[in-house]
Amino acid sequence: MRDITTLINHKDKPKKSERTLRAIQRVGQAVSGAVGRFVAVGEAIAVENEELKEEMGLACFEARRAGNAIAQLTDVSTLEQPESDERSTVFSDRTAMVKAARMLLSSVTKVLVLADRIVIKQIITSRNKVLVTLDQLERVTTFQEFVQIFSQFGNEMVEFAHLTGDRQNDLKDEKKKARMAAARAVLEKCTMMLLTASKTCLRHPDCESARINKDAVFQRMRYALEQVIEIVTDSRPGGEAQSVLPISLYTGIKDFKGKVEGLRESLYHVSVESLSAQLEALLEQMEDFTDSPYTHHEQREGLLQLCSLARQDTHTLIAAWTQAQSAKATEATEEVELAILKACQSVCELRKELHKIAVGRATELLKQHSEHLALHALKAGGGEGNLEAVAEYARTLSEQKEQLVETCRLLCHVSGTEPLEITCIHAEETFHVIGPQIISAAQTLALHPSSKIAKENLDVFCEAWESQLCDMAVLLREINDVFEGRRGDKKTYLSLPRPGKHSANLKTAKAAKLDSEEQSTIAKLGLELRLLTSDVDSEVERWEDQEHDIARHSQTISSMAYSMYLFTRGEGLLKTTLDLFHQAEILSEQGFQLCSHLHTFATQLVDDDKAVILSETEKLAASSQQLQMGAKTPVHGKSATFLKVEQSIQNTKGVMTVVVFLLPVCNKLLKKHKSERNSLGSPQDWRDKQLPTPLREEALNGKSSNGFGVKSLEQHMAGLTFLESK
Fold first, then answer.
1. What is the value of pTM for the model shown?
2. What is the rounded CA–CA span in Å between residue 654 and residue 626?
3. CA–CA dist 158, 679 (Å, integer)
4. Counting runs of H as helices and runs of E as strands, what totals does the chain give?
5. CA of 343: how far to CAs of 252, 301, 320, 484, 622, in Å?
6. CA-CA distance, 258 to 292, in Å (whole number)?
7. CA distances from 505 to 102, 409, 578, 629, 658 (A)
8. Per-residue pLDDT tens for 461-508?
């Protein structure tokens, strides 16, 4: 595209230098060659797709003809011949160049549209094959038949996973991308559930709870498959319009505030009635918070007071606004300006309180359920054949499910972006569905306590519940980041490099996207990186002062590493390998800053503890240096780029491993420091008192003390389904 623009916009000069002539000819040849390669791909696609062969062939023919025309118009080698040569060139006939360029762009666009139709058709065809095999799986009556059909089903799901993964990467609409990610996550988890639920039903064909458990999995898989098709075809079954997300309180407040501030530009661009009605609709939505049985009384009273204040300030604004209109004012008066500020401030305070309630409730729930007591009790009761115990803890789990569903609904209101709203809805649906499935699996085990397959089935559903709680913790962090302006374009380390920074990389590296096989390899590596970010987040949660420099910089490094993990999934804001390398550079800088804070902290410690911190700080500095040097090293070629990506993630893991070890050690020493400082006469007395610091082997190996450490990659991959590797 840039080459074509260059050809059209070249400067007309009476005399062209030899260098200019040759440059124009090279550009024309480059365009023609690129078109030729593009057309070759299009023609190959046409051969494989008979129904679009004619249309694709015509589009390719037009593109090739336009490319040849551009090559002829830029062939300036004969310009030195006598003037009698009237052959058209880019200099003598700019109109012909514009016409050829338009034909080229039109035909290339048509080829791309046709290719897109073919991709959509491939996804639909793949889905249809999966559905047919799914129906066969649902009707099998013997293990032998099940194994045979499930093998075919697995191959078809692998194909579907690759197609939908590529499609997700190509989507430009972040909302669609989030919906696709949610649907694929359901298919990922349901694949293992389908295996164990079906085996359990085959082993215990007369068990009603086993049948209910299996039916729910099949139903959810079919629903997720339909969702994927809705996204890729941009429609719903029966030609219905695409579903629209309900307006969240965050969006409603943002729109209301925008209209209020718009009065500064024009007092007449919106009616009094519409503004008042919008506020009342907004306050009516507050019922999701005020009517929730899980909202504390004090919080409910505080919300109602803020609602009353917002209504009062809006009425004051309307009065001042009406008065200004009556006076035929052409711009906002001083009274209107003051009323605008008050109205905006009151709704902002309301938004802050909503965020505080929703996030606080979610944090509280995650802490309550971190030990998964209800799940352990259900497993124990089922294994003992104790139906009464299973019934009792089923009620407990159902209550937890309702709390989590309600909390996800509240988080949706304050999430701040449409992709996060979709993730909240996905979490809500997941808890709503998996809760009853765990109960039915536990009931089956209680009826057949010696059944190994029934026990395995319950374990799979419990793991899915625990996984969703982990995902909810990540979601909570992202919502906080958006609220505090630490995500998206506002956060330097997540945005693309600013002009003038990291210029060396910009000159020597080329952005590239990984192919499916490379993406799969990197995804397996990225899984351990994600586990490390979870460990860091868990350790930071244990700090009383989470704004402490060490905790804060560790959290920042974790957020950067998580965005690199998303890259390994083909998701997130890092789209190309160049983005990843820039992110690695900035992460290394944060690592050096954390080293500085650790050195300061070490000066407060006694000798043995100081030596431990300084030793680990040296490791962190070395890992950060290795990461920075690797990210800055220029590479050429696809293979070298892939190796650099792999090394960048490995080096990031090295940084994160040290951070995971340092956080609990520093937290413990900091608490001890404060305690001793309060009880002893001077800080020096504390320094003179030795504090033994037992170093556990799992900590030195990069494992955290909370039981959610990084196991070997092979252990994690053993339970990983194919969709995780996308």
1. 0.63
2. 9
3. 63
4. 25, 0
5. 14, 20, 12, 21, 52
6. 28
7. 35, 44, 8, 11, 27
8. 999 999 899 889 889 988 988 887 765 433 322 222 222 323 333 333
